[in-house]
Design brief:
The protein has 192 residues and is of the alpha/beta class. It contains six helices and seven strands.
Length: 192
């Protein structure tokens, strides 16, 4: 009986050490999935800060590098001018705005691509980013923030623009995710 107790105690101690190590090394969180030993980029466009907030939470969980997608001509700071003026016009015309920096995804295996849902699709700046980079052989993990509309066909549209990429399930978050956003991100990443 004493030997069984000692074996059980050793297993508990070993298990606790493994859990502690995983909690303190975010890059090991997804050892069995698409993130294992991969170079990760988190690229995102954020007008009001919601998508940036989720990008930072993803970074907290998986590590990697971050790249903010920004247009050469910034969107207006007024929401109605940005959303109902510039963004709506770009949506209707199919415009892909020029970016400050197109980024370079060549060194990465997995690219998390973040966008707000604008006019039933991804932000036009994200379309430019996807169109002007080579995603051949890479994995894209979409993350989408929205104000009530959901994910629409954004992941499917990303796959069309990022030729040769494997696009996996999307993380879809209402606004900035609120108090449980980090837990929601962690749960999503653990299932990749």
């Amino acid at each position: 009986m004493k030997n069984i107790f000692l074996v059980m105690l050793a297993l508990v101690i070993a298990g606790t050490g493994i859990v502690f190590a995983m909690q303190n090394k975010p890059e090991t969180m997804n050892k069995e999935g698409i993130l294992m030993d991969k170079k990760i980029l988190i690229a995102y466009f954020s007008w009001g800060g919601n998508t940036k907030s989720i990008a930072e939470k993803i970074h907290n969980t998986v590590g990697g590098d971050m790249f903010r997608i920004e247009t050469s001509v910034p969107y207006p700071t007024d929401y109605h001018e940005a959303a109902y003026g510039v963004a709506k016009k770009q949506h209707e015309e199919g415009t892909k705005p020029e970016l400050k920096d197109n980024g370079d995804v060549s060194a990465y295996d997995v690219v998390f691509v973040g966008t707000p849902a604008w006019w039933y699709e991804m932000a036009p700046a994200v379309k430019t980013f996807l169109s002007e980079n080579n995603f051949e052989g890479k994995t894209i993990v979409p993350f989408i923030t929205h104000g009530g509309g959901g994910k629409y066909t954004i992941a499917e549209d990303m796959a069309k623009l990022a030729k040769g990429a494997k696009v996996v399930a999307s993380l879809v978050i209402y606004e900035n995710g609120g108090a449980n956003a980090q837990q929601e991100v962690d749960n999503f990443v653990s299932k990749l």
